[in-house]
Write a structure and sequence with these properties.
CATH class of the largest domain: Alpha Beta
CATH topology of the largest domain: VC0802-like
Helix content: 25-40%
Strand content: 25-35%
CATH superfamily of the largest domain: VC0802-like
Largest sheet: 4 strands, antiparallel
Number of strands: 7
Domain ACT: 3-121
Pfam families: ACT_8 (PF19571)
Radius of gyration: 16 Å
InterPro entries: ACT-like_dom_sf, ACT_dom_pair
Number of helices: 4
Protein name: Amino acid-binding ACT domain-containing protein
Order of helices and strands: EHEEHEEHEEH
CATH architecture of the largest domain: 2-Layer Sandwich
Strand order of the largest sheet: 2-3-1-4
Number of domains: 2
Length: 131
Amino acid sequence: MYDIEIVLENRPGSLALMGEILGTNNISLEGGGVFAGNEKSTAHFLIMEPEKARKVLGDAGFDVLAINEVIIQKLRQDLPGQLGLFCRRLADENVNILVQYSDHANQLILVVDNPEKARAVSDKWMKEFWN
């Protein structure tokens, strides 16, 4: 899975058009969100086929800013404070979170500045909280 970062016009129908283009090309979005600015918005979506999405969106005039690696982390919903604790562990390793959202399976999706370090934190987390 990858995060695709897309610029959208901040106007009615922009997100609909993006979704229609991806749907027509059998590209599924597995999570994400749109963050509004003044005239432009930034969309981040979790996707399986990033290069195919980049091409079809680019062909339709959308500006795809980046394809990003993601960290996908399951947090324990029965233990309060999981988000803070996991993010603190990333911070303690000097990993900066650039984007955060959830997927359709209620997992934490992160784009970070150091995926290798973040994966090590995530792997240790999984052993501690899920084994």
